[in-house]
Amino acid sequence: MHVAVLLTGGCVRFGSQHRVRCLGNGQQSARRSAAAATSLGNHAGWLRSTSPHRARAPASRGAAGFGRCRRSGRPRCGRQEPGSVNRRDRGVNRRDRGPAQRRATEFVTAAAERGVVVAGACTGTFFLAEAGVLNGRHATTSWRLGPAFRARYPLVDLDTRATLVHNSGVATAAAAFAHIDLALWLVRCRSLALAELVARYLLIGDRSSQATFAMPSVLASQSAEVAAFERWVRDHLTEPLSIREAAEAIGVSARTLQRRTMATMGLSPLAFANEVRLDEAAHLLRNTSLSTDAVAAAVGLCNASSLGQLVRQRRGSTLRTLRGEGVLRAGVARSED
């Protein structure tokens, strides 16, 4: 299996380094261990040229992975129509209209047409969408980029809760460290046993969802109306939710609010309000000693059972897991003084 990693100018290298390290570890592990039924003959090419057409195209059984962003952390992608994305997302909206980016998207299109598996993570998913290979497909990207991606590529079925989505020769992954999940998926395509071995060596756990990390206030900031709605919901968390009352309070109709939240978040106003409730509930569960019933009441739900049902529906988790996991707690040992 031959793997080519395409990088363009201005790329932040740490994500791609992790991807190549994972693939390289797979190659070494396959040579050392009898646990893998087959070896991974991996050639991870660092194609740093901003002229991707100069690179040799991978074989039809190979895969090409794409990931790129500026050192400032703002995403950069290919062509765009003026005004097609909210102007607040300047990195996506105003950058990279040059020939190098056009060649990158053409490279992706040509590879996909030859039957090559193509994959991208974080801002790299924008290259796949620009190339048209995600149209009509289920895909993911960084939750932070969801509003811009959704506005720009309405033909893509975007799910920003997922960390990794793969179907019919195309794979997409979430933010920077999801590069690791993407690389491990490529190894898994060749050998399940080898993928498990690599995961153990690199301490890669199950991260099937990025929903826990998403911040509603950041996503809402892409639209003035949605941001106002998010603030209104937080100010009235303990009260029964009335979409009509909320819309009137922020100066729009209920129908306009529905359109804005769907366009920005891919969610109805009620579903987005529940995301805000979950965000606040998760904070209280992790950082206070309040009972689950008290937490439920603090976010406007009847009882712990209602909160637990919402957590299962939207996070695929439980209240106990949510209380104990914490974004920064995994693997941290407490030493005795």
TrEMBL record:
Basic residues composition bias: residue spans: 68-77
Keyword DNA-binding among record annotations: yes
- Which terms does the record give in the GO molecular function aspect? DNA-binding transcription factor activity; sequence-specific DNA binding
Identify the keywords attached in UniProt to this record, alphabetized.
Answer: DNA-binding, Plasmid
One short Pfam family name for this protein? HTH_18
Q: Does the keyword DNA-binding apply?
A: yes
Q: Where is the composition biased (Low complexity)?
A: 57-67
Locate the compositionally biased regions of type Basic and acidic residues: 86-104
What PROSITE patterns does UniProt report for this protein, alphabetically?
HTH_ARAC_FAMILY_2
Region: Disordered; residue ranges are 33-104
Boundaries of every HTH araC/xylS-type domain copy: 227-325
What's this protein's name? Transcriptional regulator containing an amidase domain and an AraC-type DNA-binding HTH domain
State the organism named in the record.
Mycolicibacterium chubuense (strain NBB4) (Mycobacterium chubuense)
